[in-house]
Specification:
With about 150 residues, the protein is mainly beta. About 10% of the residues lie in helices and about 40% in strands. The relative contact order is 0.19.
Length: about 150
């Protein structure tokens, strides 16, 4: 009887992980574009792992996981005077904590961005906010440190 109970717990845990129900929200990755003179090219958004959670717009693309891989997607950005940026956004799978986020410029201009890992509890999406583009080097801007609650 004990082994049957163990099998049931294992089966429920396996199903939860395979459907993404175990940690659904922390496996989402939101890419937001604040650079006013740049746009996402929605038809040029693709994923090696994961998928779009809805249609990409000129200023936003939201990705979700499939299986046991976090989102790994590429986005083409178009800027002024024919400038382009082709960037990969990858977030590790989240099982019990938010996955690390990697932003890799693949071609053309490089992003200046802020990234924030998602959270398992409370469940929150990982986010990358692209502030601008640079022809020379990618730059990650650190978000302001969170103030500790005085007790």
């Amino acid at each position: 009887m004990k082994s049957l109970k163990h099998l049931g717990v294992t089966l429920v845990a396996s199903l939860a992980l395979s459907t993404g129900a175990w940690a659904q929200s922390c496996n989402n990755l939101d890419v937001n574009l604040l650079a006013t003179d740049w746009n996402i090219v929605p038809s040029a958004v693709a994923c090696n792992h994961g998928q779009l959670a809805g249609p990409a717009t000129a200023k936003m693309a939201n990705f979700t996981t499939t299986g046991l891989f976090g989102p790994d997607c590429t986005v083409l950005f178009q800027g002024p005077s024919g400038a382009y940026a082709y960037v990969e956004f990858q977030q590790n799978y989240c099982a019990t904590e938010g996955g690390a986020i990697t932003v890799t410029p693949l071609q053309f201009q490089k992003p200046v961005y802020i990234s924030q890992e998602g959270s398992f509890k409370p469940p929150t999406d990982g986010t990358v906010t692209v502030l601008a583009f640079s022809p020379t080097a990618a730059l990650q801007v650190k978000p302001p440190a969170k103030k500790k609650d005085p007790k």
